[in-house]
Fold these 3 entries.
Entry 1:
Amino acid sequence: MNQAFIRVSGLKKYYQMGGTTVRALDGVDLEIEPHSFTVVMGPSGSGKSTLLYLLGGLDRATAGEIWVDGQSLNEVDENSLALFRRRTIGFVFQSFNLIPSMTARENVAFPMQFAGVNPRRRDEQADFLLKQVGLGDRALHRPTELSGGQQQRVAIARALVNDPKLILADEPTGNLDTASGAAIMQLLSDLHRSGRTVLVVTHDTRMMRFATRQIYLLDGRVVSEAEYQSAVLEVAQPS
Amino acid sequence: MRFFDLLRLIFGNLSRRKARVALTAIGVVIGTAAVVILVSLAIGLQRNANEQLYGIGDLTQIQVMPSFGEGPVMVGPGGGGGGGGGSSQTKLLTNQALEELRAIPGVEWVSPREFLWSGGMVRYRKLEGWANIIGVDVKDLADLGFETVQGDTALGRTTIVVGPMVANNFYDPRLRPGQEPPPPPDLYDQQIQFIISKWDAQGNETRKNLSLRVTGVLKETRGESDWTIYMPLEQVKALNEWSQNRRINYNKEGYSQVIVKVRDVNQVLDIADQITEMGYQAYTPQSFVQGINNFYIILQVIFGGVGAIALLVAAIGIANTMAMSILERTREIGLMKAVGATNRDVLAIFLGEASGIGFIGGLGGVIIGWLAGQVINVMAVVYLSNQAGQQGGIPPSVAVYTPIWLPVFALVFSTLIGMLSGLYPALRAATMIPVLALKYE
């Protein structure tokens, strides 16, 4: 009975910060089906980014279990975790994280170097993906010569380059203007429709339109929509 | 990750920060140049010393002399190299002993030599002189490794080959005080009178007069041969028998000296030891040369060490640059890990960058060190040959000598230093927790 693409149980992540323990995630249980578009909503400090990084194998949990695509992330060594990130995950970050000295094509092709793909194949694949995200004519531009929306599209092309099953996006529209943000959302939605599992962490309520599933996080716990709304409203009420 | 991709990435990363890489590499340039120059200087000094030393003789030859032990000298059948003699026993260089010496592995040839026991006077026109006369057991001195500047090395019954300094031994016996001595004669192809004397019990002198033609003048070796007149062994034996008035049995009395030629210069000391153990006296300049060489090797190590201190300082510079660079590129490291770089990939990239700085610096240092060596050479050789000219010595051919292994070694060493100093920063980069690296501000 393991239909879920992602399964999380009793997930906890604590940080030590200046002598106090911060409970970023405090017992999260989740199941996410394959080919879904999941949006994780939550205020700052709710632990939503922490969840995303744990799912992507960029960090290790304090307690609990994570299964992604049938693989447990708890008991693997650093090397296997790197291979997991390489083969299964495509990351999209709020601040794009493009390498400034590289062209768009080189940035997109960058992950394939670690996979040992030959240079010609890398360039072909990068050009193909850049065309897909609508930047076919920008392959030789450096990040500084591109707009924010274009940079994020390069980053999405890079996330796709190893053909991952799961796209993890951390506030992908956070640094973008409304129009560029909408375009990025559309792009992520297209990826979902092409069969990939997409998980987006965001504040941006417009993202809800594309979601097949919403998860609300408050103080490191998954809560219902009603609970979330009332908590958010409570904060919003002037006292 | 493919090796070529790794190289390209490293090169790309280094060329992103040209100024900083160049400044860091300058430290390595200075260190490597210092190592190359100083070690070259030490090697140059050694070469000079060896050039002077080669005068003491062919380093692959061992002079073997009989041992007369500590007890009373016994000349008899037992002394001829029969068995069981310790070093305290008399060991003579009989024909049997020659066979023993020939049997030592690594010995190329064994050649007995005999001195003329009685004094011999040489006369050329009105000049007289004394000469050291040695009989050798070869038809041609070339077999003993000699070369001539005039004539050839072949020996005959009425011909002799002389050392280049023999002419300087001639003087004019009728020269009055204050008179300018005549210049040394050119002996080549000249007839020389050779007079040996013997006295009987009553003190009556008998003289024997030989007329010999000089058919060869040897090249200078700065050794014994420069002052020696060479004759065939048989002739010296005959003259010795004449002056002693008796037949000499070499199987019983042995030769006064045997030259043992060794195939490989590295075996000389071993074989000399073996000969000593057999009970003979063995003398080789090699032991002396070895001592001198050891001194120069120590000198090379000390000089190299001075240069290495400069390299050590440069290494700290590399470590610093790499540590800074890793701080600045923390997010990039996070990204590399996020897109699937393993810890080993990250380690390789940063170690490669550090090695790259070492290599670039090393390359610069080798080039500068070599060029500086050439400049020093030109200046020093001119100066030293002036000095030598004034003092009548032999001018050195080089002051600084850079053997091919030195730049190669220096380059490998500087690259290795770069790699070592990059180890700590690179390990830190490789073991960063990806999420912390990505969030680093």
Note: The domain at 6-236 of chain A is CATH 3.40.50.300 (Rossmann fold).
Entry 2:
Amino acid sequence: MRTRLITSLLASIPFAASAQSSQLNLTQGVTEISNRVYDLHMTIFYICCVIGLLVFGAMFWSMIAHRKKQGVKPATFHENVKVEIAWTVIPFLILIGMAIPATSTLIAMEDTSESDVTVLVTGSQWKWHYKYFDHDVEFFSLLATQQEQINNRLDKGENYLLEVDRPLVIPTGKKVRFLITSDDVIHSWWVPDFAVKKDANPGFINEAWTKVDEPGIYRGQCAELCGKDHGFMPVVVIAKEPAEYDAWITEQEQIAKQAKAEEQRLLAMSMTEAELMQLGESVYLGNCAACHQPNGQGIPGVFPSLVGTDMVLNDLPAHIDIVVNGKNGTAMQAFGNQLSLRELAAVITYERNAWGNSTGDLVQAADVNEYKNN
Amino acid sequence: MSTVVGEMDHQDHHHHAPSGITRWLFTTNHKDIGSMYLWFSFIMFLVGGSMAMVIRAELFQPGLQLVDPHFFNQMTTVHGLTMVFGAVMPAFTGLANWMIPMMIGAPDMALPRMNNWSFWILPFAFAILLASLFMEGGGPAFGWTFYAPLSTTYSSDSTALFVFSVHIMGISSIMGAINVIVTIMNMRAPGMNYMKMPLFVWTWLITAFLLIAVMPVLAGAVTMVLTDKYFGTSFFDAAGGGDPVMFQHIFWFFGHPEVYIMILPSFGIISAIIPAFSRKPLFGYSSMVYATGAIAILSFLVWAHHMFTTGMPVAAEMFFMYATMLISVPTGVKVFNWVATMWRGSITFETPMLFALAFVILFTIGGFSGLMLAITPVDFQYHDTYFVVAHFHYVLVSGAIFSIMAAAYYWLPKWTGHMYDEKLGRLHFWCSLISVNVLFFPMHFAGLAGMPRRIPDYSLQFADINQIVSIGGFAFGLSQLIFLWVVIKCVKGGEKAPAKPWEGAEGLEWTVPSPAPYHTFETPPEVK
């Protein structure tokens, strides 16, 4: 038994080491800017190394050569104006040498003018929303890693915590401008390979840009503490050749149009309880469970429970209203423009009939639609 | 027998410390209050440290194992607050209480009753803060920087307790600072002019001015958080005409001088210890004083380097980049001076010196990463990653806390009258030195590779690094228990310490017997 344990432990070591090539340095990235940033990083790093070698070298030299054990008599000097001036002026000159390339890179990074494509990036607890300015395309981008992987019930996938259901798609070789804002707290939109990190401030819009040369999938994360699930709102960007990008965006516009038509058609239709509950559960787990918890109990003092509360049991209009329009001044978002009417109807039905709530209320798309137009 | 009689002779009746709990509750003696500050800070160091252990245990492996993300955020928040306001700052105030009067030849602090009060409100502040962790909804979970609106609209109700406790901590710090300034300005022994003061006194004097300048700013920030959350104001709420980024400007206008508050007294300690064990006077005393002043002034001009990603005008980014880079000049001067002090000295390596040398090297490494962080374009990549976590732990743990350890070993013989156990001291040093680097050095790599800070779970590429870091963390935490052991052992007994146990030590504190009598310098000494 014991030997088996040891052999299996030994066997797992090379696996653990080779499972992921551990990156130890800043990425060079895939844009001209990110390469310049990388070069700056390395330059400063080497300068620090040289200074460090000199200072620590002198220190270790005296620690070895000037020990009392060696019988050294201490010198008595304690001042030297020339030396003091030298080690004030020389570092100052080195700093000027560093500041020049840093300044020119900074100016280039902040020049968001003459962009080809503009995307509005909106952070909210805990997902990103992307809206293309010149096309009728917008969508939410949520963490796609299964809860079971996070809770260690399933093996973790290759892109654990760095995968989303709908990545942002941008064209290569074009200057893409990001307008970045937030719906609730401060988030920070970060893609290391682009050297773009910009805070998403509620009520204000920040600008950033990138021009990616290589098609590929680039991953990042929210970089500003934004509450409970700050660690679970990744950013994934796919860069496609312009032709492919055009095809993609046209297709997305088509899909959006059809979805709207479908929505209108559904207003006239009713769904069965089974359909509502099934769809409702999946919508609930994807959108509501992060705060209200999969069992509906919430977290006392932070996120209210949905089990047996007055609103859920007795006040249908208030319930629909809060799901559709959110509640100002709290973490409760307006889901009216995040979910389809069908999904809204289903999730409200689910909440009113799950975990021992048994109102028997069935909410249909048309019911929700009334509140949406309010 | 004769020694006992000698002691009795030396202390007449009112020199005796009162006994029992009231001695500590009602004391106005700078040595008693200093000891209480130091013990309090050590307890807080263990409390804050155990929260760090929770953090490192959760981060030992990818996935969520031990705590939920909401509690994880409470741990990072309260760990930071406890360490900054509970461990580092009170430790320095404790050292100031013990040493400043003895260093300048004063009988006590200038305002002894206020001294008592400024200590005794602290335990209440931390009782409130720590108790808030047990509230419904948990304690503060918005990071020690409590950025709005996460700390206002989106926080739990423990925020009110957080605000109240920060107010008390601030009042305590301000009172401590006033006491230090008044003492130094009015109670120096005859002949002790400003340019003869030990650097520890100088650095604390400047620190005290920083405290008085910025603690009210912090009080303002928390008050605005309170009114935004409970009384309908909109300082930081864009929907009401406010600005969440303004919070960060206010916070960091406090926060950046605050980091110098936590490091300037260290510079003073190191400037006492390195000459003592190099048996050679401090190199460039006056340039050390001017450098400290320059750092203090610059510290008010660099706050927005914490905020490069918030979206500032390019001109502002440049200004804060240049000003920040400039700080490395006076800081460099200090490091060069310490090395020049050692140069051609006659060096021995007792525990205080070991910690001081480790301070110089590791603090300088923290300074290098600080310089890297100052460069705005690369800061965009480093910001809010583990690179920053590595940076500020290098300057605060292997910087500030190592200097406090060095100070404790250096002055323990004076405080207790006994030599500490040198072997155990060295064991503590080597365990701390190795583990602190295993703990914080790999964090640089995690940050560069893209791991954000304040996350309870991470992608698989960071697994190996985090495992190493956690092991270093547990080892560092355990190593500090050796320190506790050394101190208790030293308080209880040990080889009798002479008035001046260190051959090369300079200063008035070494002219009084060890342990320092309950009252010292009732007649001021003459300083030549």
Note: Chain B is about 65% helix and 0% strand.
Entry 3:
Amino acid sequence: MAVHDDVNGSTEKSNSGMDELLTFNAENMQNNMKVIYYSRTFLSIISGAIAGILGFTGLMGFIFYFLVMAITSVALAAKASFSIHSYFNSWNCIIFDGFLGGLMSFVLFWTFAYDIVHIF
Amino acid sequence: MVTRTEEEEVNRLENQVENGGGGVWEYLCLVHKLKLRRSDMVLKHGLSILNDSKKRSALGPEEWTLYEQVAVAAMDCQSIDVAKDCIKVLQRKFPGSKRVGRLEAMLLEARGLWSEAENAYSSLLEENPFDQVVHKRRAAMAKAQGNISAAIDWLNKYLDLFMADHEAWRELAEIYVSLQMYKQAAFCYEELILSQPTVPLYHLAYADVIYTLGGLENLQTAKKYYASTIDLTGGKSTRALFGICLCTSAIGQLTKGRSKEDKESSELQSLSAMALEIDFN
Amino acid sequence: MAEDLVLDTAIRDWVLIPLSVVMVLIGVLRYFVSKLMKGSSQVPDPKIVKEGQVIIRARNLRAGANYIPAKSFRARKAYYSNEENGLLHVPKGQAQNPQAQMFSDPNMAMDMMKKNLSMIIPQTLTFAWVNFFFSGFVAAKIPFPLTQRFRAMLQNGIDLSTVDVSYVSSRSWYFLNLFGLRGLFSLILGEENATDDTQRMMQMSGFGMDPSKTLGAEKDGLDIVQHEWALPKFEQRAEAVLRKLVK
């Protein structure tokens, strides 16, 4: 979680004082999205390894993934001090962005860690 | 655009470097990345690295970009000899390189040999018509010679091809303002606002130009842009505050008798006047 | 079918782990190789450069339309999209199809080939290598149950219909790695991860993009933009800002 927060620390205020009108500094916005994507990917890999080591199987693992992603969303929102619209287009990008891409990494690392620890 | 944090970082590093601390290379990198013009510092500290063969070779391939950076800085400081030395080293390393050719042309320009430099730039452009730096150098050279109309020509030609280059638009706008061609300047500033709608500087400059053009409609527009500048800067722009006051009084003179929307506008004016008073106290 | 297979630990040490490590290393290697190959640049076509710039500028206009006065917006819109000589207007006959354009310009085809080759060659090589060394192993077991339909996907290379579907053959493990490691690459290689295979595969079918099509799309986008000047709102907001400041 420490690294995630660290990465997230570089989120820049994209549009000071323009929060009602939807105008964005495209560059900062892109940066924000990138930070989200990174923290998601990072967490999905880490959580995959954790799930594998703990030996979750079946539905448990996926529930674990959803849980982690939900926590990430909340943490990201908290980092943006819950005023999403001054950093991002909409809630969607904080909640769903990188969700499916992360799932693939999650499954891979989950399988990998699970096999190494439990199967052999 | 250089953000405030970046600027602070540069200043911090500059202080550190000036006082003999480390981080010279980081400072030079940052200056290069942000495209700052601190030629004297770059020249001084870049040379200190280049003259130290151990430090120089520690840079690896970055050594050559440093040579280029120092050469340009030296030209800016009129240390022609240093620039010549740097370019010579680069020439030996990269014979026939266009990038070095560009430096040579710039050296000619720095020495004031305009026609030779012009020829060099044209031949460079023949080889690669998309060298944006050379295009810009040509416009800058015309401007340096005092040949403003040629500079405008070059810039227009350049913008016809690279029409998304906002730096060139800005340069053109400033030239037009200096020539008092405000309509053209207004167009350029509109273009700048389009490309970066959140930069208050462009709103302010646009408002200035529109205000200068005069006429009721333009004045009202100018007031709106001063207002947006205030909004974007959080009310810290004295010039915009002053502009609001001027616009309002000018509009008031023009619309004397016909009072329709002066109620709300006068409030903006009184507010900005108050803010100005606070500023000056 | 219900009983668990016992997998030899040697399979883990000599198949599962090496395969994954090699996949990561190859990804890193390819990133650097593609970086090297990208270095050489050639002179682009002036028309294409200009079209790219026009598109950027038109996009700016669309995004920032509300920040300039209506008159200026209308003038620009006409400049871009009028039917005679607007910058975004593409005459019908001139819109040649990209295929023909590609054949007329061998350089472009060459470039495309190079790009694709740099993607395909390492892929086939690794695949061949995996096939050669690791064919037929049951290398892993995914920790969740799946239906029979996934058998073809997960047990590629072993023809046993009695093994539980959640066991993965080595070849399929390779594919899992291929897709799942993308996230890892973007983390360790930084922003421009050149190893985005799946997206490139999709692009390949489209075979590059057609500039005249993007011009047309931009024109359509510009046509439907409603100009609503945002500046009047700013007066109130400036007032609010100042009121706060004065207080």
Note: Residues 194-198, 201-208 of chain C have pLDDT under 50 and may be disordered.
